[in-house]
Amino acid sequence: MLLTVINAGKSALNEDQACCTVVVARRRPMSYCPPSTPSKTPTAKRRISLPNGEGLGLQVEPSKLEEDSEGLVFHYWALFDGHAGSGAAVVASRMLQHHIACQLQAVIEILRNLASPPPTLLGEEPDSNPYLQGNTPGPHRALTRAASLRGAAGAPGSPSSTPPTPRFFSEKKVQHESLVIGAIENAFKEMDAQIEREKQVYNITGGCTALAVVYLLGKLYVGNAGDSRAIIIRNNEIVAMSTEFTPESERQRLQFLGFMQPHLLGNEFTHLEFPRRVQRKEVGKKMLYRDFTMNGWAYKTIEDDDLKFPLIYGEGKKARVLATIGVTRGLGDHDLKVHDSNIYIKPFLSCCPEVKVYNLAQYEHGADDVLVMGTDGLWDVLSNQEVAEAVTSFLANCDPDDLHRYTMAAQDLVMRARGVLRDRGWRITNERLGSGDDISAFIIPLMYGNRQP
């Protein structure tokens, strides 16, 4: 189900790394979480392979898939696209799933009890807080003036003889899937913190984007930090399951940070954006610009400060943050600086993923319905529609009972993105340039997720 094409010469190890496994989030103390990077595959994780021995599918019996006597079991797939070395990608491919399991430990019992909403306070009885139940507080729980102004129906000193009813009498409706989303988000942050702690000890170089999928309790959770992409192909329709985070897509977040903390720009960059570099001779003239508050453009009078290099420079795949890096979310890069300066880029790079949820139980999936995950080497040259057409066409010509069909479809997809070597380099359909990057892809069948416990 996974094929990686190595772009020789970029790194001693392939900068694209992947992981595919089944993990048990056990009911143990939090010390279960590995304290440091392992030198070999940890024994804490459990693997279940496809009959062809090449990876994981969703064909495990549902009763065994979702529940384990020791905790919850989840399927896990992840792709990591490294840059400036393979170190961060290698470490993340070995460790991120354990951080997810560690975060899920704290909410295992809550996730098992889907009939009751998650408690606001762990260890507190539901009726112990009168403000959450609409009860009138007793003398020992009197409202302060500030709380009264915020929560009471009437103002203090109201002539009404009826005690004011607290306005906030009910809890927010937090769904169980929000706990899984929060666990994945915190796991990414913990993974990033671990890379920072251990980068010197284990010589962890560079950084990496991260795209991780967790299959738990009948739902797919797709967490993405970077510019890899995941789509679902269902009944010839395409469902986007991730968003690329680039200097252009996150322009306003980056500009706002530069505006709020200008020292991060080192007096060399400006958070404002212009259509092109401003020249000295244009000071005093009016030029198009925009900042973090704007989607449109306006004119401003050019000042000396506007001559600084823009925080975001370039367009499309050539856009860079601080003239250095083309992705804005991922893991690692703690030591990355602007060339020939002491300006760190990490404050502008977020490790937090966007997590999207897909409920497998809502649809009856056929044998050709799949989740496709790929690093940017795939999506740089093929669109969602081209990928969907290629995968659908390939699977349609395979025996539905052939368990190798998904692996072969992944191989075909990657080779389509690489193309054919001609006199003028690698070429794909219509003589377009093929991908010159590392390419990794998962094709994961969804039909096995139809069966529920």
Automatic annotation (TrEMBL):
Pfam families: PP2C. One of its GO terms (molecular function) is [pyruvate dehydrogenase (acetyl-transferring)]-phosphatase activity. GO terms for cellular component: mitochondrion. Residues 33-55, 119-142 are annotated as: Disordered. Residues 47-446 form the PPM-type phosphatase domain. Coiled coil: none annotated. Transmembrane segments: none annotated. PANTHER family: PROTEIN PHOSPHATASE 1H, PROTEIN PHOSPHATASE 2C. This is PPM-type phosphatase domain-containing protein. It comes from Scophthalmus maximus (Turbot).
